[in-house]
Amino acid sequence: MSLLELADLRVTYRTTSGPVPALRGVELAVEGGQKVGIAGESGCGKSTLALSLLRLLPPGTEVTGHISLDGEDVLTMGWGRLRAVRWAAASIVFQGAMHSLNPVRRVGAQILEPILVHGEGGGDPGSRLAGLLEEVGLAAAAAEAYPHQLSGGQRQRVMIAMALACSPRLVVADEPTSALDVMVQAQILRLVDRLVTDQGIGLVLISHDLSVLASTCDRLVVMYAGRIVEEGPAGEVLGAPRHPYTAALAAAHPRIGDGASRRNPGGLPGDPPDVERLPEGCSFRPRCPVSVAGCELVDPPLWSAGAGRRAACIHVRPAEPETGAG
């Protein structure tokens, strides 16, 4: 059994203009010690997916399907059990450390909060705090600082320390390197990679930056309009994409090198679809450079696209078995 399993996960927001289907039948598995990256344009459902894993979505949101964490269904567990699962079994690094920390509390007290709530380890909380700060590369004196007294990279390290405070088995990191310069970004990614590897934590890493995901993750999941459209080993998905949307994302990032590896970044015409008014058939069809007759008839499921790979495109649809007179 996987550490995290999602089956037919559907999330619909209720708005004054009507229902908004943010996630449409997402299926995903994450193993302990595995790093899974999630990519896609803004509005594709990445952050909704992250928040749904710990039931952090706004009240009134309709969620159906199955979220299994270590064999327990997150969607059906009672409030008391859910409180025990948050931080201790699974934690989240929210997008934008600048806005996720309480500006009027010292960062040490904020890191200590989940430790005190869950009674982590039964030992001295102060020793645990010091150990966490050292683990993420911060001086012990940082515990007495307020968020505004720390740099962006230091605040991001505080968020990671909070996420690791109760030794969770799963960490969800939503754009953990956004708004950081490239040097600090590299430091944070190396830190996350080391901690996940050393502690056997399952990681779900969300980012717009494919280079971040390619350098950090074992597997890559590409989302479009609330669905997974491609999944597989990160190097293979980016090196030989099977879905035209993945190919467009990969082409949008220039490669430095000689010969064939040097190319200008490309792009896609148009904008992502409004999920309230999705086109008929494949939701990527209006922007797809390789659409064919029949794409307007079916929104493709995730078909096998090779060993350990899946893609939701008519071009990877299995051939129909031939029939005839015996």
Radius of gyration: 21 Å
- The amount of helix comes to 25-40%
Q: What's the shape?
A: globular
- Average per-residue pLDDT, rounded, comes to 88
Secondary-structure-derived class: alpha/beta
Oligomer class: single chain
Measure the end-to-end span.
Answer: 43 Å
Strand tally is 12
Give an account of the 3D structure.
- With 326 residues, this protein is an alpha/beta fold.
- It is built from 10 helices and 12 strands.
- The strands form 2 sheets. The protein has an 8-stranded mixed sheet, sandwiched between helices. The chain has a 4-stranded antiparallel sheet with strand order 2-1-4-5, covered by helices on one side.
- Strand 7 (170-174), helix 7 (182-199) and strand 8 form a beta-alpha-beta unit.
State the gist of this model.
With 326 residues, the protein is an alpha/beta fold.
What's the SSE blueprint?
Elements: E1 4-15, E2 18-30, E3 35-39, H1 46-52, E4 62-69, E5 72-73, H2 79-85, E6 90-93, H3 97-100, H4 107-118, H5 125-135, H6 152-164, E7 170-174, H7 182-199, E8 202-206, H8 210-216, E9 219-224, E10 227-233, H9 234-239, H10 244-251, E11 303-304, E12 310-311
Parallel strand pairs: 3-8, 3-9, 6-7, 7-8
Antiparallel strand pairs: 1-2, 1-4, 4-5, 9-10, 10-12, 11-12
Helix pairs in contact: 4-5, 4-6, 6-7
